[in-house]
């Protein structure tokens, strides 16, 4: 088995486990590079984090290495979730609870999920591009999950589904939301929907932890951990 390391995370994967495009991104270090850098500015020590769209578990593992953090991670595609488990286990990470499935606002219901060759393109949108097959997945109520697990930080990369989720969910207890925007799927109108919905819930766009499509929305106005560390170094 080929063993790569990316963003400090060991990847016990074979080229056939992912598409050639993703394997190339893993090999050259560009895979989720922006997320890996900026998530450190969104997640604080001892946060209780919900991650949606785990993928192969790279960002999950990066988050889990922040001291005192507990992570609950969800990946819709069972095959991809199995790869994520392999990555998490290979890195000796014990503070992640990984589950296959979807969290959504409202009562549990069935969603169609479209599996594509490039796993980062798999989504609930049938119009996003050609897909290999579709699966049916039952959702779990996100607000109930947030409350029952005392989640205070939300991280997500869910290929456009963030638009409806952030509009419809109440997000109780969440202080910070770090997500990748997908303007190629819903345009500036969708970004406006997201920012207005989060503003109505008390979240502000936080430039201290945002870069391009990887954005942080915050309620708390205290210093990030990295700001405190920079002050100490000075």
Automatic annotation (TrEMBL):
Source superkingdom: Bacteria
Q: Entry's Pfam families?
A: Methyltransf_21
Query: In its UniProt record, which GO terms are filed under biological process?
Result: methylation
Instruction: Please provide the record's keywords in A-Z order.
Output: Methyltransferase, Transferase
SUPFAM superfamilies from the xrefs? Answer: S-adenosyl-L-methionine-dependent methyltransferases
Task: Return one GO MF term.
Answer: methyltransferase activity
Gene3D superfamilies to which the protein is assigned, alphabetical? Vaccinia Virus protein VP39
* Methyltransferase FkbM domain ranges (all copies): 53-203
Q: Can you say what this protein is called?
A: FkbM family methyltransferase
Q: What is the lineage of its organism?
A: Bacteria, Pseudomonadati, Pseudomonadota, Alphaproteobacteria, Hyphomicrobiales
Q: Tell me which species this is from.
A: Aminobacter ciceronei
